[in-house]
Write a structure and sequence with these properties.
- The protein has 191 residues and is α+β, with helices and mostly antiparallel strands.
- It has three helices and ten strands.
- Strands 1, 2, 3, 4, 5, 6, 7, 8, 9 and 10 form a ten-stranded mixed β-sheet that branches.
- The protein is globular and about 40 Å long.
- About 3% of the residues have low confidence.
């Protein structure tokens, strides 16, 4: 499905077998999360039904995964399995989030894992937060279209990423992403 230049990666009839394989892998991942953190750990936050796990791209495709409030920091990613899954399905990484309490100044807290590209965890990921904003706009319309995401908490390297989505009749027209981070140093890398 194409929405004004934003590609939402979903199946079509020609890729039914690929969809079956992806669903089998996703079910295995959910099963592992349920086994480690309890049944129903991947669910719609504040509600009883699950939010779908989706691969969404705003230029770089990520798997968007919701977890219940309080579970995000407990995640211990398996870099090898995430990298294998991403390589097999042409994805950058996993963008895992939990919605924040209503009184919070943040919409959601996030963690981003992209070990296929040598990034075990990233403290600020604008492209993934843009994809998450599109996801929330589509699935949780009650949140509005202006989002504030916190990322990097588990790394003790906080960042604040803002995102706004402009849409008309459920069609996303544009996504704008910005943010703030704290510098913890610099490194010169030879290229």
């Amino acid at each position: 499905m194409i929405k004004s230049g934003l590609k939402v990666v979903k199946s079509d009839s020609k890729k039914e077998q690929e969809l079956k394989e992806k669903n089998k892998s996703l079910e295995a991942a959910i099963s592992q999360i349920d086994q480690n953190f309890g049944k129903g750990s991947v669910m719609r936050l504040g509600q009883q039904q699950a939010l779908d796990i989706e691969a969404i791209s705003t230029g770089l495709a990520d798997v968007i995964i919701a977890v219940p409030h309080g579970y995000l920091d407990a995640i211990e990613p398996n870099d090898e399995r995430i990298a294998d899954f991403c390589k097999k399905h042409n994805l950058v990484g996993f963008h895992v989030f939990e919605l924040c309490e209503v009184q919070s100044k943040h919409t959601a807290s996030c963690r981003n894992f992209a070990p296929l590209f040598g990034i075990s965890e990233e403290s600020a990921t604008g492209s993934s937060c843009g994809a998450l904003a599109c996801y929330l706009t589509e699935h949780l319309t009650e949140l509005g279209s202006e989002y504030v995401f916190e990322q990097g908490r588990a790394m003790n390297c906080h960042s604040i990423i803002t995102a706004s989505v402009e849409s008309n009749n459920s069609i996303i027209n544009s996504v704008k992403v910005g943010g703030f981070a704290n510098s913890i140093g610099s490194v010169i890398v030879a290229v």
